[in-house]
Amino acid sequence: MYARSATVLAASMLALCACAPMPPSPPVGVRSADCNTSGGGARCDITVRVGTQYACELGRFDVDPDLLNLRGGRPVSLVWTLPEPFGFCGDDNVYLKPGVTSDFRQAYESFGSSNADGSRGPNSSVAGTCQSKWHWNWRNTGTDLYPYNLQFTDRATGRKCTIDPWVRNG
Q: Using an 8 Å Cβ cutoff, are 120 and 111 in contact?
C-alpha cells in the first residue's frame, strides 16, 4: 500500500513539474557583461544602438550589454542611452516585463534624463519632452534574473519600438 501511494505521489509530482512554467532565461549567444556594484554610488551604463539583435517596427537594434550581470549586491544606478534620432518620449520608459514574479520593486526610482551623466535634470519630468537617457535606481537584492522591456520613440516620425534585454542581480 505504501509503495503504491509513493508511486502515485511521485507521478503526481512529476506531472506538476512538467506543467510548471520555466523561469525566464536569455537566448543562447546573448552578450553579457559584469558591473561591479560593491562600492557605494556604483553606476552601470547600457548603450542602445542600431544593430542586428533586436527587431521592431523602427529597425534592428543592439543593446550593450544584452545581459547585465550585477556583482557586489549593492544598490546601483542603471543608465540606458539611446542614439539620435531616438528618445524616451511620452509614456516610453524601461520597465520589468509583465508577469515578472520576482520582487518588482527592484527599481525604486525611474526617470528620463538628457544630462550626460544620466542624472535628473530640469526637463526630466516635463510632459512632452523626449529624453536621450533612462535612469533606474536599482536595489540589486537577491540573485534573480529580470527580463525587461525598453520602449522608445523615433523623434522624427513618432513611431515606437519595444525591445527586451536582461538584468541579473548579484
A: yes
CB 49 within 8 A of CB 150: no
Cell triple for residue 85? 534620432
Residue 166: pLDDT over 60: yes
DSSP at 128:
T
Cβ atoms of 78 and 134 closer than 8 Å: no
Give the contacts of 124 (CB within 8 A, at least 6 positions apart): 111, 112, 113, 114, 131
Q: What is the DSSP letter of 132?
A: S
What average pLDDT score do residues 123-152 get? 81
User: Hey, what domains does the chain have and what are their CATH numbers?
Assistant: 31-168 (2.60.40)
H or E, element range at 12: helix 2-19
Q: What is the pTM for the complete model shown? A: 0.78
> Residues 11, 14, 18, CA angle at the centre, nearest 5°?
140
Q: Are 98 and 162 in contact (CB under 8 A)?
A: no
Could you please report the per-residue DSSP string of 37-98? --STTEEEEEEEEEEEEEEETTEEEEEESSEEEEESSS-EEEEEEPPTTEEEETT--EEEPT
Q: Which helix (H) or strand (E) holds 32?
A: strand 32-36
